[in-house]
Design a protein that fits this description.
Blueprint: E1 4-7, H1 10-20, E2 25-33, E3 41-48, E4 53-56, H2 65-71, E5 77-80, H3 84-94, E6 101-103, H4 104-110, H5 119-127, H6 147-158, H7 160-173, H8 177-188, H9 212-232, H10 236-239, H11 242-251, H12 256-260, H13 267-272, H14 274-285, H15 303-323, H16 327-330, H17 333-340, H18 351-366
Parallel strand pairs: 1-4, 2-5, 5-6
Antiparallel strand pairs: 2-3, 3-4
Length: about 375
């Protein structure tokens, strides 16, 4: 591994960051583990400037401030593939995210190379190189790392640095650099990665089937679970599973005996958290109805709406073909249904999507082509 340098001491990290601070861009990847924690555990950082690949060991270095200064330098574009999980790690470490970024997965989708395409698939499609996948299940927290594992990690930026200039030139040629900027704006927004306990009930599987009263109970229980998971740094499901939350919200136990009868709720967990759970359920039940979450019933499209959706989707497919994009990259049938029902605050009607297809959809909608 002549081109791979393993960094595991403070001075070496300072030296490397000093050498890289003048670069216009850097390809970056991370290895992490979060199977047993709420917050991801950073295990390795890989960086390259196309000449050498540096694998930085955060478990061996106490002070990573030189690295953070490099990553937060606004004059350096940070190149990632599928950046959200990498950026989430840095947000939890620093309460900010590296900027500006270029995401090769986003670039690939804007070039019609595949939506949410994986790194290995993109490398094979663009560079005709098949990557070794044998170490994808590595425990990156274990030390020492084997040379094969380090090379595997290094490959995640080795080819990322080759993809970036190719994809950038293609975007530039097609006049789509500003598309990239608009797509990564959400990724660069620190608010994207902030835990949101009051609204986490919306991500609980099965919440869409609840009526307003049990939904309000679920809202309180899910927020409590989120705080518990954060405080203990344990996965949410280790506190209470989604299914148990739904069961608590629907059964609404009033005392410890009823609590112990809730399906799938472990008796030890019930005893340990009985006061909290029963208190939250009681609090939610006593709230005035005006404070309950609104239920958004998913009304199925009528036969006429289905016909209109078919017409609008045909327009989307035509525009997608013209720009060599996938139709799903532009919009979805569900989003078009919202438009038919009067909503206008939609991704389709903003940014590059408005130019590519949004205006055509509005023109079609406003014409007499659609039947009402």
């Amino acid at each position: 591994m002549d081109d791979v340098i393993y960094i595991e001491d403070q001075q070496a990290l300072r030296d490397v960051c000093g050498q890289l601070c003048g670069c216009n861009w850097l390809a970056i990847d991370t290895e992490f583990i979060r199977e047993k924690t709420y917050f991801p555990q950073l295990a390795l950082i890989q960086i390259t400037n196309t000449e050498l690949i540096y694998c930085i060991d955060p478990l061996a270095i106490d002070d990573l401030s030189a690295l953070y200064e490099l990553l937060e330098n606004p004059a350096i574009t940070k190149v990632f593939h599928a950046a959200s999980q990498d950026l989430e790690i840095f947000f939890h470490l620093r309460q900010c995210v590296p900027q500006p970024i270029f995401d090769t997965q986003v670039a690939a989708s804007l070039l019609g190379l595949g939506e949410q395409i994986g790194y290995a698939a993109l490398v094979e499609k663009v560079l005709n190189i098949e990557l070794d996948k044998s170490h994808s299940r590595t425990n990156w927290m274990q030390r020492p790392l084997q040379s094969k594992q380090i090379r595997y990690a290094a490959d995640d930026v080795r080819y990322l640095s080759r993809l970036y200039p190719l994809l950038y030139k293609k975007l530039e040629k097609l006049g789509r650099i500003d598309w990239m900027d608009s797509e990564v704006a959400r990724l660069q927004n620190p608010a994207t990665y902030k835990p949101d306990p009051p609204n986490c009930w919306q991500r609980v599987k099965g919440s869409g089937n609840l009526k307003r009263k049990p939904l309000n109970i679920l809202r309180h229980l899910a927020a409590w679970r989120e705080h518990q998971a954060m405080q203990a740094n344990r996965p949410r499901r280790w506190i209470l599973s989604d299914e148990v939350l739904i069961n608590l919200a629907t059964h609404q136990p009033m005392d410890r005996d009823q609590l112990l009868q809730v399906p799938l709720l472990d008796s030890k967990i019930a005893e340990r958290h009985a006061t909290d759970l029963l208190g939250l359920i009681d609090q939610a039940q006593n709230e005035t109805e005006e404070n309950w979450p609104a239920v958004r019933y998913r009304k199925k499209p009528s036969a006429q709406e289905e016909a209109n959706l078919d017409l609008l989707m045909a327009v989307i497919h035509l525009r997608a073909d013209e720009y060599r994009l996938s139709s799903t990259q532009i919009t979805s049938r569900s989003e078009l249904l919202k438009l038919l029902r009067g909503e206008r605050d939609l991704p389709l009607l903003g940014g590059w999507r408005l130019k590519v297809a949004g205006q055509a959809i509005l023109d079609t909608y406003q014409s007499k082509m659609l039947r009402h």
